[in-house]
Design goal:
It is a single chain. The strands form 2 sheets. A 7-stranded parallel beta sheet has the order 3-2-1-4-5-6-7, with helices on both faces. Strands 10-9-8-11-12-13 form a 6-stranded parallel beta sheet, with helices on both faces. It is of the alpha/beta class. It folds into 2 domains: about 170 residues, Rossmann fold (3-Layer(aba) Sandwich); about 150 residues, Rossmann fold, CATH 3.40.50. Helices cover about 40% and strands about 15% of the residues. The chain is built from 15 helices and 13 strands.
Length: about 425
């Protein structure tokens, strides 16, 4: 039997990956140019602008001071004028602080979804992004703001991401507001800026409450000194991720790809060729650290929506997630719910969540050993089936986790007015 010809589909996969990256960069640049033209048009409305420019060109020595008085000098200020105008008087029950308004994948998606869902239960919300991306949230999303005025009032400020820790703690101390850390992963282990990691470790004990997404994270939060910890596992959204017995399973393995070294895709790449040689189709999705990696896949899909991800899981037999560090490991849980059997490295995130002998995944100890991966693939087809893994993970879902988080957040709000001293409650 001839070996499959993998060269042609591999080259197509790489071209697709490069096209996805081209589209992403083009979208960013077009959005940035659109913003710049908006700023230029706004400035052109200023009276005597032409005269001002002539004066500046003649008095170069005073250019810096004149610009400070007459022209916006900070990029964030001009962006705020265009995208999310800030009124002089704002208030909210909840202020969620995110590192960026580029909400695409991972913990930022879950944090935003959680707070927006709280808004459906009568709680007023605002979401502050510390950094702006021109392709991020649209102007129409009034929940997002880029800065807060002095008069802003909130009952609870929530930190999501290590980059937000210092801002949230400073805000909570300044205004006497309750603070909550949404601990979605072991950020100090992998956040790029070590100053953020250090700030995280020294500030955990200062939060009024810490909501963790897994028993593993609860253990870490306790070790790092958290005073009050509530575990609320925000698992798969069962309205999207579910087993459809009418969908035919393909001889297909799906691989989630992410940028970080700790996500482990480099450790899996050498084994993919052998899996393809024995008849498996390998499909990747997400972000590749290096676009040339796409040639090791039969197909690479780039970033796809939750609905598209669910269909991919429903059609695939196995998910191989080589990530070394996870606070929870949501992709594996979503795959299980769709009857796609996950193979993951033993990384702690699922400890204490499932009954022994009813784990909806296969854990291995070392993704550096190709034979271990091949054995796990064989085991997945002989010892587990789609219906089993879907049933075993069903109790870990978004709705159950949301109810726990909602109860804790409601209690924090009810125990604190959130206003500065001297202000009256609404």
């Amino acid at each position: 039997m001839d070996e499959p010809n993998i060269d042609e589909p591999a080259s197509i996969s790489e071209l697709k990956a490069r096209l996805f990256e081209k589209d992403r960069v083009e979208k960013y640049l077009r959005a940035e140019v659109e913003e710049l033209w908006t700023h230029i048009n706004e400035l052109n409305k200023l009276p005597f602008l032409a005269l001002h420019l002539k004066i500046v060109s003649l008095l170069r020595f005073f250019l810096r001071k004149v610009k400070q008085v007459l022209l916006p000098t900070k990029k964030s200020e001009t962006q705020n004028q265009v995208h999310r105008p800030i009124t002089k008087d704002l208030s909210a029950d909840i202020l969620l602080v995110l590192p960026t308004d580029k909400i695409e994948i991972g913990g930022l998606v879950s944090a935003t979804k959680l707070v927006k869902q709280l808004g459906n239960f009568g709680l007023s919300i605002k979401i502050l992004s510390l950094n702006h991306d021109p392709t991020g949230q649209m102007e129409a999303d009034s929940d997002f703001i880029s800065s807060i005025p002095e008069s802003f009032k909130t009952r609870l400020v929530i930190s999501s991401g290590a980059e937000t820790i210092k801002f949230v703690q400073d805000y909570a101390k300044r205004y006497g507001t309750k603070s909550l850390l949404l601990m979605q992963g072991p950020d100090p282990y992998f956040t790029p800026n070590f100053n953020n990691a250090s700030e995280y470790l020294t500030s955990v004990s200062s939060f009024d409450s810490v909501i963790t997404l897994s028993p593993f994270l609860t253990k870490l939060a306790k070790f790092w000194g958290a005073k009050r910890i509530v575990n609320a596992t925000l698992g798969p959204d069962q309205s999207i991720f579910k087993l459809d017995v009418g969908v035919k399973k393909l001889n297909q393995i799906v691989v989630p790809c992410r940028f970080g070294v700790e996500k482990g895709i480099r450790f899996l790449i050498p084994t993919l060729k052998e899996l393809r040689n024995v008849g498996w189709k390998i499909v990747g999705f997400g972000d590749l650290p290096d676009l040339s990696m796409a040639k090791f896949f039969d197909d690479f899909l780039g970033r796809i929506s939750p609905e598209e991800t669910s269909i991919l899981f429903q059609e695939s037999m196995i998910l191989i997630d080589p990530s070394l560090v996870e606070g929870l490991g949501l992709s594996a849980l979503e795959a299980s719910r769709c009857g796609c059997i996950p193979i993951v490295q033993k990384r702690g995130g699922f400890d204490g969540m499932f009954e022994f002998g009813k784990e909806p995944f296969i854990e291995i100890t070392n993704f550096l050993d190709p034979e271990t991966i091949l054995e796990a693939v064989h085991k997945s087809q002989t010892e587990l089936n789609p219906k089993q893994v879907s049933d075993w993970v069903s109790h870990i879902n978004w709705d159950n986790g949301f109810l726990i988080a909602k109860k804790e957040i409601s209690e924090l709000i009810s125990n604190n007015s959130g206003w500065r001293q001297g202000d009256s409650n609404p």
